[in-house]
Amino acid sequence: MGKKLLMRGSQVIGEAAVRAGCRFYAGYPITPQNALPEFMSGALDALEDGTFIQAESEIASINMVLGASMAGARAMTSSSSPGISLKQEGISFLAASELPAVIVNSMRGGPGLGNIAPSQGDYFQATRGGGHGDYRTIVLAPASGQEMADLTKKAFEYADRYRTPVMLLVDGMMSQMMEPVIFPDPVNLTELPPKPWVLDGANGRPSRIIKSLILDTMEMEEHNWKLARKYEIISREIAAAETYMTEDARFVVVAYGTAARVAKGSIKRAREMGLKVGLLRPVTLWPFPEHIIREMSRSVKDFLVFEMNTGQMLDDVKLSLEGRSNVHFYGRPGGIVSTPDEIAKVISSLYYRQHLEED
């Protein structure tokens, strides 16, 4: 572990990726994530075994990542909302071929071309796979510069461990925000677990095949069930969330990323007013930490889902609770970032209203 460095969010992800063993990056420019490919171009060029490619398109870049992963490299790409949409076919190919890769989405306002302001409108796309077919993508949602560094390392570890694409879901504000970060020590590439499936030339061994085209329907069905069993294992092993001031809470805000940072400030204000309010922050958006929310419902009867969209994680909270508690929603779509005072007013209004109904 080294000393604290003050860095922009996109650069934090880049530095953490290189330290995690990323040696291949392909991408295409789009705001507000451009600082990441800019960083990777210099960082990988400085390494003897590093490769950076500014591809001709988002579609080309994700398929270059697929090829690099197939050859055994720790590979990454990044984009912002509409660019990620263009990559979805390639992400589906990665999942079907069981190839590890890290994809960074710095969300902006949408739908369509939208704007370059921070948003959380891509939750559905990220957590439901986004592309065609029966597959899932691990989705990690950092909420600070330090966590961007830590979860970038984890993203590469999860990708290799489960042979699956992993998405880091941030937003334009987190990409541009500067915070002090302590980076993990660089990994030793020679000490990483072996990849016996890699296509590195069949000299002296039987040939290997990696493909997603399976024309036999019975074989395709079995492959889908194989993937489903893997996703069940992932769900059991890595679902994670942070809790804040929930020990005695009667009212809990559920938020992730930038929205969770705003929510923390609002909860501090609510506590100063004597309200027993806490925060549940999902760190893995898929698998969603439904067991943590469900357990919390034993003592918490009101949850407020706060998102920078019109209500997407809201569905997962409702599904997790299965009617055990009341679920409220407050959102600001299109690139609007709420203030802690704004959310504190929403909390206090709901809190007092629910208490009046109970009384």
Structural write-up:
This protein is of the alpha/beta class and 359 residues long. 42% of the residues lie in helices and 19% in strands. It contains twelve helices and 14 strands. It has helices at 9-19, 35-45, 58-70, 81-96, 123-127, 145-162, 172-176, 217-238, 257-272, 290-296, 313-321, 340-358, and strands at 5-8, 22-27, 51-54, 74-79, 101-107, 138-140, 165-171, 178-181, 241-244, 251-254, 277-282, 284-286, 302-307, 326-331. Helix 1 (9-19) packs parallel to helix 2, helix 3 (58-70) runs parallel beside helix 4 (81-96) and helix 9 crosses helix 12 (340-358).
Tell me about the biggest sheet? 7 strands, mixed
Mean pLDDT, as a whole number? 96
Low-confidence stretches: none
Q: What is the CATH architecture annotation of the largest domain?
A: 3-Layer(aba) Sandwich
Beta-strand percentage?
Answer: 15-25%
Compute the number of strand runs. Answer: 14
CATH class descriptor name of the largest domain: Alpha Beta
CATH homolog superfamily of the largest domain: Thiamin diphosphate (ThDP)-binding fold, Pyr/PP domains
Structural class: alpha/beta
Question: H/E element string?
Answer: EHEHEHEHEHEHEHEHEEHEEHEHEH
Overall, the morphology is: globular
Helix content: 40-55%
Radius of gyration: 21 Å
Instruction: Tell me the number of helical segments per DSSP (H or I, 4 or more residues long).
Output: 12
Order of the strands making up the biggest sheet? 3-2-4-5-7-6-12
Please give the domain count: 2
Q: End-to-end span in angstroms?
A: 53 Å
**CATH topology description of the largest domain:** Rossmann fold
